[in-house]
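Weekly sync notes, structure subgroup
Attendees: PM, AL, DS (notes)

Item 1: joint prediction request from the bench team. They want all two components modeled as one assembly rather than separately. Inputs as received:
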Amino acid sequence: MISLTYLQRSLRARPTTTALTASAVALVVFVFSAAWMLQSGIRRTLGLSGSPRNAIVLRKGSPSEMASVVSEPAAAIVRASAAADPAGAGATPRTLSELVLVRYVERAGGGGGNVQIRGVPDGVAEFRPDVRIVEGRRARPGADEAIVGKAIRDRFKGLDIGQSFALQGSRSVQVVGVFESNGSSFESEVWSDLRTVQSASGRAGMVSTMRVRLDSPGELEALRAAVTADPRLGLDVVREDEFFDDQSSGTAAFVTAMGALIAIFASIGATVGTASSMYAAVSQRRREAGVLRALGFSRRAVLGSYIAESIVVSLIGASAGAALSLAVIPFKLSMMNTASFSQTVFELHPTAFSLVSSLGAGAAMGIVGGFLPALRGARMPSLEAMRS
Amino acid sequence: MTFSSLVVRNLRRQPLETGLTTIAVAFGLLTFVLLRTACTAWTANVDEALSDRVVTWNKVTFQLPLPVAYVDRARRATGAETTFGSWFGGHDAAHPRDSMSTFAVDDNYFRVHDNLLVPGEQLRAWRDDRQGAIVGDALAAKLGYAIGDRIVLESSAYPGAREVRVSGVFRTRDRTVDRGQLLFHWRYLNDEAPDGQRDQVGWMMSRAGARGSADLARTIDREFENDPSQTLSMSEQSMRLLILSNYSALLSSMNVVCVILLAIVAVIVGNAIAIRVRTRTHEYGVLGALGFGAGHIVTLVIGEAAGMAAIGGALGLALSHLVIDRGIGPMVERSVASLFPSFRAPASAMAVGLALVVAAAAAAAALPALQASRLRSVDALRRVD
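Output from the run, pasted for the record:
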């Protein structure tokens, strides 16, 4: 085998070429890695909103919470099918009825977007213990007050602590607190009292969805059987985590498809670019290769050294690209979640898999781009090469 | 021998490297055009929307309905031609996996939406049939609907199943109209709607005519100012802009990626040119000794880069046409017609893309060109590789 020192020195001998070839790979890997992180960020944000311990009851076929309507009589039947609520104040309720609205709100920096507004009943703090107030206080039951998720607080007009926004006509709701929820999509919502949202939207007695706490996985089937037994209710029961998984599929699919196409086409471009510069490197070094062969190194050793060189250059580029993509993580993306038709703030979420596959893609570009030039370089008869 | 033929000869000297670089440029441009196509497809419906039409929603949110009585009040208050519809969220029970956009609409819907072209006798047949439905030509082709076919519709918004009959097929000249729609009578939907959903409409749509959409929108909203459900009216164009603003972050990140792609092209071409310049030091010395000035050598190097990018760009445009217009485009139009009714590479994006890759390549060649021109002939000729 040809020593690694040779490899290192030959890369250093052509610093511009090495740097430029690596940069092309770096830029491609950057786009690849960023798209991948966004896709997993979308899945994570929506995935965290659902728990396998909860069931969600909504109108059959509703693609989102917003599109679902559950009337009060139907809700009463669901409550009866679930195990009874424990008695006493502060106890965790077994069911949670909520009304979900989507409203267009102007953005702080111009433009605007749809914001999901959730009318929540009294027991919500106990039902969703992950939701913590980080500033201000909780909204008082029955008051025209609201709390906002920390992801959207400074992104929309009127949605920060102390400000107020119009829910309907002259009826405005004051923001009294900011909450967080482990980075789930709830952090992109506004929560107000259920009765406030119901009366402001003229939907008294109506809710969008119900959550039911499951004590054991078996309860889901029992609940489903009870709720779907009466087809006139037109309701369906889905496990909460599966529901939010479905929610993420639309937006995530667009990002994945677009990201994959860009990654494939751009990688072909970068691979061919690598091949082009490797061909140039190989033909510049005919004499060197001839000397190596004359010294007794086998063709395979020369081939291996050229390919190794190409892989090293690509890996340098890929690492730089991946590192660069980690640097853009602080930029969060407020984007329409196509399933819920509302703005959700997504983070770029790096995973071990995304980093490894970014480096893998870089190495692959090096192998594919370097192989044919290396073959040409290794095949050259040594005497002829030295004479040239 | 002219100066430009020197550029061409230089390009042909290393056919393999030149070829590979042009292919790299071609794929760079393809990716660029693909992204621009997605952006354009996304924003195109704003450009094609009629500013002459005014849409009216419930002011709280577009998802809440308006009482049907508002329609006549709006007609009386404005004298404008007004139609309405409700989102039905339906699918063909026989094809549950195929997406379609289903709306229950008023009888005069096609008079206001005159960009949906339905033959006169089909339109009359639709009006006379309580269960009649008009389908888009793309939907008819996809699911094989013919006039007279019965379709059982199921909905995610209304309980139960409804049977409709195909009375006609609409075509359109607009590229951004969703041709995967099925439109049936609101009356029919309303007759069998459950109590909580009866006598409600999703939105109203009015023609502004000469008075202008801003004035019409104001008049409508003023009419319902003191009612329990207030309205929000705006031109169809403003509405689409509003929907679009929800995607602004995605669109701007796609623009950032476009810039990165140009950088990739610049780096690849710049690299190829830098390598060439280094191997031709001797030649530049000769050119200099023959009396060619620095300007000539700069032109020679940049011309070669631009030529390489132009060839690659032309190849990329052909590739874009093949991959997007013949491959991805029709696939996207079939599967997500409601989001992207038209997904074709726009000529403007192709032209701009070509110009930008050539410019990027020329800019990337500037540094190697400058280095080549600065060589003193004596040094260049003395240097041994």
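Discussion: Residues 297 and 362 of chain A are 28 Å apart (CA to CA).
Action: AL to compare against the crosslinking data before next sync.
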